[in-house]
Write a structure and sequence with these properties.
The termini are far apart. The longest helix has 19 residues. This protein has a three-stranded antiparallel sheet with strand order 1-3-2. By secondary structure, the protein is an alpha+beta fold.
Amino acid sequence: QVSELVQFLLVKDQKKIPIKRADMLKNVIREYRDAYSEIVNKAGKTLQEVFGLQLVEIDSKRHTYILINNLPRAEGRYLCRDEEKEKMGLLLIILSFIFMKGNSVKDSALWEFLHLLQVNPGKQHQVFGDVRKLVTEEFVKQKYLEIIPIPLTDPPESKYQWGPRAEKEISKKDVLNAVAKIQGKDPTFWASQYSEAEA
């Protein structure tokens, strides 16, 4: 059961979509329901030792889990498959923008910012494909981003902030150092972000 669960989690993680306890029970653990915790703990240990991945529960009410990369990483370089690298690059740019703007940005500000980078939500991008879909569906489903509707706005507006996977997987210190490098400034230049990143 343990090795089956490890494979199941690795396959599920390819899409970076959170894994529900119900799916683990239904597809893998089945009649060994009583040993659920033991099986999950052992699978978690195997993932950690063999793949450098950590099984983390991100929602204890709905019992959803994600795998996060635990291998030591070079500053600002995240371990991922080649075709994912560009997407992760875009994601890191978006997360940096959100962090530097005080941890939440209006959707209009985000699209404006991407527009400046020649990444237009309305157009098909040669690397990212449908950018709007990538940001509003894929990154949200993967729990890297969260979209929160802003009440009483007409037309309706929403804001973006870091999702639970980003909080667990990406260090704000790395993000701040990367931004500082790009801007040629010391990270302490941004006092509130600096104190948050060091916390």
